[in-house]
Amino acid sequence: MSGKYRLFTVVTLVFLVLDQVTKIWVVRNLEYQRDEIQIIDGWFSLVHAQNKGAAFGFMSNNDNAMVFFAVFTLIAVGVLGQMLREMESNETLQIWGVSLVASGALGNAIDRAHKQSVTDFLRVYTEHPSLQPWLIENFRTYEWPSFNVADAAIVVGLALFMVDYLFFQKEEEELPSDPPEKMLDEG
User: Would you say 98 and 154 are in contact if contact means Cβ atoms under 8 Å apart?
Assistant: First the structure.
């Protein structure tokens, strides 16, 4: 197994296991929509939520959502596999990005296949007296929708793609559209 496939396998499995273990812990230890463990008072806590849709509850009331998510996940994993095959072994940031996105897609797919919803438990919010009213006025909420390790892995993976593209990809040399003048003079 080449280095890129070994790195992909390790990163994907580590984050997939981390995602599943944390979700199992939440389901077993936090009562659904009741319990909350404060981690950073007024900013971050652990809760137990179930999301039948995608990000921000998108498609949560759609009867065909599970079929859509299954097909989308299969396509996404296929595309990620093709991207990995085309990558060079030294494209470490890209390999990490593909691995994290794959682990997140698979982690949430396991939840959907198992119970037709995804366990979310990371709650980011604010009770700051000047921020909360401003957020409510401008965004109609003072908290980010609850999410999980798989969601975070997808976001970080996509961010790694962006960082690699913006800061580390060499610009491809463009072929001149017109032949060099020297060649024109010789003809």
Answer: no
Report if pTM > 0.70. Answer: yes
- Does residue 120 carry a catalytic annotation? yes
Catalytic residue from among 19, 35, 151, 185: 151
Domain ranges of the chain: 3-167
Which two structure tokens, joined as six digits, stand for 26?
Answer: 């939440």
Is the CB of residue 42 less than 8 Å from the CB of residue 36? Answer: no
- Whole-number pLDDT of residue 62: 60
Give the whole-angstrom CA distance, residue 132 versus residue 179. Answer: 62
Q: Spot the catalytic one: 120, 164, 178, 185.
A: 120
Alpha-carbon distance 49 to 121, whole Å?
A: 6
